[in-house]
Design goal:
The protein has 233 residues and is of the alpha/beta class. The protein has one domain: Ribonuclease Z/Hydroxyacylglutathione hydrolase-like (Metallo-beta-lactamase, Chain A). Helices cover 26% and strands 26% of the residues. It has seven helices and 14 strands. The strands form three sheets. It has a six-stranded mixed β-sheet with strand order 1-2-3-4-5-6, with helices on one face. It has a six-stranded mixed β-sheet with strand order 7-8-9-10-13-14, with no helix packed on it. Strands 11-12 form a two-stranded antiparallel ribbon. Strand 3, helix 1 and strand 4 form a beta-alpha-beta unit. The longest helix has 14 residues. The protein is globular, with a radius of gyration of 16 Å. The two termini are 27 Å apart. The structure holds zinc ion. The site of zinc ion has 6 residues, from loops. Zinc ion (ZN) binds next to loops.
């Protein structure tokens, strides 16, 4: 991967660190209890948690925002989240469960989610609407991509040809639309928006990063969704 980019493999799920000369950015925070692992990953790069300023939560789910309350204690970390997901992160409202219609997806959900700790309420310092350009990575464009959740965001760094998809897409075995969505139809529109960006380096909420080959994976994806118009995944 790019020298500025580091994937943090957590006990469950993953997060990403992006390094600039004068700051460090964290994308997602893992499940509750990931704070020490995240801090260790920052130190392993030779940086300090004091240098972490931007923290972007791609959405409210407990395996992405679960560590945010721990990151809230880092002195300069400013947690960013979309306004539609913010009340579920701050604990003002309970997060809505996904709308699952397929049996295989329900079985997978029942297999995975009971083992995940609930996300403790966390402070959101910066409310996103989509369309912002955050000052890291040469300019990180915030893309509002509803579907997985109402407030899901992706980050596009055009200067480096890098895309953080959050859970709008995954690469577990192969590149697919995300699962456990609130709105499967909107999710597919959001997937199409990401495919149109045609990025070189793609960082998923789950699964291995892709460095090149996203275009061919995306073509397979659109071919299969064209032949199965009802298939959400
Ligand atoms: Zn999710």
């Amino acid at each position: 991967m790019l020298p500025d980019l580091h994937m943090v493999r957590l006990a469950f799920g993953q997060a990403y660190l992006w390094q600039d000369s004068d700051s460090v950015t964290l994308v997602d925070t893992g499940v509750a209890g990931s704070g020490a692992e995240l801090a260790e990953a920052v130190r392993a790069l030779g940086r300090s948690v004091d240098e972490v300023d931007h923290v972007v939560l791609t959405h409210f789910h407990e395996d992405h925002a679960g560590g945010a309350s721990e990151v809230n204690t880092w002195p300069n970390a400013r947690v960013h989240a979309h306004r539609a997901d913010e009340p579920f992160i701050t604990g003002v409202l309970p997060g809505p469960p996904p709308v699952i219609t397929e049996d295989w997806e329900r079985a997978l959900h029942q297999q995975i989610t009971p083992g995940l700790p609930a996300a403790p309420p966390a402070r959101v310092d910066v409310t996103l609407a989509g369309g912002e350009v955050l000052p890291f990575g040469g300019g990180a464009h915030v893309l509002h991509l509803p579907g997985h959740t109402d407030g899901s965001v992706a980050l596009h760094l055009p200067h480096h040809d890098v895309l953080f998809t959050g859970d709008t897409m995954a690469n577990v075995g192969q590149v697919t639309p995300g699962v456990f969505n609130l709105d499967a139809a909107r999710l597919l529109d959001s997937v199409k928006a990401l495919v149109r960006l045609d990025p070189r380096t793609v960082l998923f909420g789950h699964g291995e990063p892709l460095d090149q080959g996203f275009d061919s994976a995306a073509k397979r994806l659109s071919a299969s969704s064209d032949s199965d118009p009802g298939g959400a995944v």
